[in-house]
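Milestone M4 deliverable, item 7.
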Amino acid sequence: MTSAREGAYVDGRQWRTTIAAAQAGDRRALDELVEGWLPLVYNIVGRALNGHADVDDVVQETMLRAVDNLGTLRDPDSFRSWLVAIVMRQIRDRARRRTSESLASAADDAAQEVTDFAELTVLRLQLEGQRREVAEAVRWLDDEDRQLLSLWWLEVAGELSRRELAAAVGISRQHTAVRVQRMKARLEAARGIVRALDQSCPELRELTARWDRRPDSVWRKRLARHIRGCRHCAAPGEAVVPAERLLVGLALVPIPVGFTLSLVLGGKTAVAATAATATTAATTAGWSAKVVAALTKPAVALTAGATIVAGGAYVVTRPDASPPPAAAPPTASSTSRPKAQSPPAPSPSASPSKTPETPKKNLYGTVVDAVDQAPAPGTRPGALPRRPEGTVTLAGAPPTGLTHRGETVTFTGRGYVRLLWQVLPKERPGSLVMPAWTGLKGRLFHVASGGGHRMDDVQPGSTDGTTWMGGPATGVTFLPAGTQQMWQVEYFWIDGTVTLRQNERGADYNLFAEPSTWQKVTDDITRAPGGDILRYGLVRDNGKDTAPVPQYLTRTTPADPATVRQESRVTVPGESPG
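Output delivered:
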């Protein structure tokens, strides 16, 4: 199944075309859109409502409104923020209705919490240790804090940007930062409660003897007061890792079997269906088949209760089967983007003398960086081809480098460019969202790698295998599947203009760019190993238009550069090599 994570950040899939096609009435594109973004909606609503029975209704109402109003979306690049804003409005509307009605008692609410989302998160993602502690602490938050946390959780995990979070909440980014800090403080207090309840404090056992095991604000205050005054519960134990570091790179919780969803298209309402109706629809409603599949992956196959109705509506009812087993944890291979297939080779001519000669195709951009093995440390690099050099100017880069998401630097001119990487697992490890090269005019080549080491080399003096990507003491920063491992310094040659954008979401990293020269590149990559220099550099340039271009490169200027595809496609038919 295509998830919002895969569609937005990890594999760089571009949704603009799909959204535009769905707006134009393409049913298949609409299928794909709902299938791709349903998990994100489910995770926000499920965590905000902590698995209350109303989750089904709120998710369904959100998707209905999104489909009904898709034609009003002016900019497809803003689809994610637009969809999340709809989700939050539905959550707030549900809260207002419940407040005004005031018909259900606390006991009724507890009875309707058919799925504890905290427990679902723990089981489906197989969380342990402090990650499990964070998930369970969410139960102790008030409704307003849970709503904010449902968005912040996805921001830290790399699913949303801070701009989108603020827009969904409806306040400024500055005010959002204040609210997030306050919510995080209450989350940490709740984590303290979870830790204390797992310990064997006699006084705490006596205090909770009358507790019904349902978290609420009254018991939260009582327990917090006890913890502050109890030397046993407040005693320092395992070092507490900040929640944002624990949540980095976590997958979306898969939609469980038994989740109820009914969508109606074209104004047709489905309230019931017979087996015959379902049989007819099976061959006509592609939407229905795809959404049923979306509701059952990657958990388990649907066991019972699926009714598909002709006319594009579908209803998935709760099966009576026993609860499904927990899904296997996501792996890199399960979330990686399939490698793009190479175009088929042209058939050889039967008679070359009878085939008219065709113009030679431009080869620029046909070779893209890919995952490669590190050369042996003592392997000297080949000679670096010398390309024309002029002046390269840098515009927009802060004096401190590109240290925050959204910061950019634009290179203009002809010559060499040096880019130094600084990965900071001590600050925030996890999944790294790669920077993107956008708005290319002309040519850009990845010519060499240097700096004395790759970022995945073991650091000198390390006894536990710590690399520049991290280690046991800090956590590890990891790259999207299929991304080429960076060296400390990467070198590029530009003939034209291009903008590099820092896309930091999840793992923390910095970039430092400056003009360079052929001689400086050569001097760096030919430094012999010794001391802090672990290996010679690597020459990638062959001096031709078949030299590699960097990954995440595009001639377009997308609203969200984090959506630039990993497999760069910059070849323009008929473009002059110069």
